[in-house]
Amino acid sequence: MMTTADPLACDFEAFARVARTRRSVRAYQPDAIPDEVLDKCLDLALLAPNSHNLEPWQFIEVRDPAKLARLRILCLNQLPAREAPHLIVAVARPDFWRMGRRLMQAAIESDAPGMHLPEDVRVALRAKYRFIIPMIFQDGPFHILGPLKRFILWAIGLFTISWRFDAGRAGQTLWATRTTALACQNLMLALRAAGFDSCPMEGFDEPRVKRLLGLPGPARIVMVLAAGRRADGGVAPLYRFDRTLYVRRV
Ligand SMILES: Cc1cc2nc3c(=O)[nH]c(=O)nc-3n(C[C@H](O)[C@H](O)[C@H](O)COP(=O)(O)O)c2cc1C
Question: What CATH number does residue 179 fall under?
């Protein structure tokens, strides 16, 4: 039975309020979100589950006035992009796997908080980040080994239950996008819990946004998040289809 002193105690009703009142807000008040609040929300975004703990994500809050003005236009000048005081670009970074691997390897050998590991776990993690992670992600120049890996995974899968991980360039993009989208949701819920609002946007000119932010080829923009405090009339009525269409028990 949980008590309030229980570090795992949670408030379901409080979460339900956050989830229910998170809406895609299109009209905003002009005042900015205080830096310390936005930082806390971004920190919570980075607590999202992430594949292999490799953190293949990046959040770029565009503050430079000229860049921000340009970004609003590159988001097709849609209402939330025009109105929100903040625009945060959520980027999937499949290419970050190398950095994540290096950082994990250093962390495994360190005494960092959260890394007080039993020796057998440390040995297993060492092997994972030394051998398995490169095996999954190292595709050679231009992902030349991607098709070969996909073929091998397919062939193995004909004979046995196997892990058909996302190989090749498209697979790695999907891999990083999944994780980044989870962090986006954390960020939107955190903003709501802090009394602010957001709108995820996929309507933007990706190549131009990438150029504006100097992002490299493998980076993919998952969404641009408008953020701020909602203004009256900034929210469409909430509507969802019949849950039986989407929720099954088998
Ligand atoms: C991946 C994604 C992309 C979206 N892109 C846009 C967008 O470009 N512009 C916009 O106004 N809303 C956008 N939305 C918001 C959806 O229209 C909105 O989530 C949906 O209508 C449900 O409303 P709610 O978020 O208020 O519950 C997007 C939502 C998601 C999840």
Answer: 3.40.109.10
The model's pLDDT over 112-132, given as tens digits with 9 standing for 90+, comes to 888 888 999 999 999 999 999
Longest dimension (CA), the chain: 60
> 186-236 pLDDT, tens per residue?
999 999 999 999 999 999 999 999 999 999 999 999 999 999 999 999 999
Q: Does the C-beta of 24 come closer than 6 Å to ligand 1?
A: yes
Is residue 11 situated within a structural domain? no
| Substitution site in 78, 188, 201 for ligand 1 pocket (most atoms within 8 Å of beta carbon) | 201
* Mean pLDDT (the chain, rounded): 96
Helix/strand/coil for 248: coil
* CB of residue 203 inside a 6 A radius of ligand 1: yes
Q: Strands of the chain (E only): list them.
A: 57-61, 86-92, 197-201, 220-228
